[in-house]
Amino acid sequence: MTSQSLRTDELWKSVVEVISREFDVPADALEPETLLLHIEGADSIKQLRAVTQLEHMFGVTLMTAAVPPAQSLSDLVTQIGGLREANGGQ
Description:
Elements: H1 3-23, H2 44-58, H3 73-86
Helix pairs in contact: 1-2, 1-3
Organism: Nocardia aurantia
Pfam families: PP-binding (PF00550)
Protein name: Carrier domain-containing protein
């Protein structure tokens, strides 16, 4: 496993943990193709709290307009990873 894939795996686990907690869904119910919009009980407040936690956790700024409810979790992980890389993060 490359260091990039390890970072992506760790990033995925962290994103799933935050989304699971904020949306009150089991982590094993979340897949890379899961859309934020399709998570049971999803609403804009839960999404905002999750985005804020992810921003603090990874030291990035996600514009809420850049995290549409129709975005998949995989897209979110890719976006965070790209921002971290652009900011010189690991």
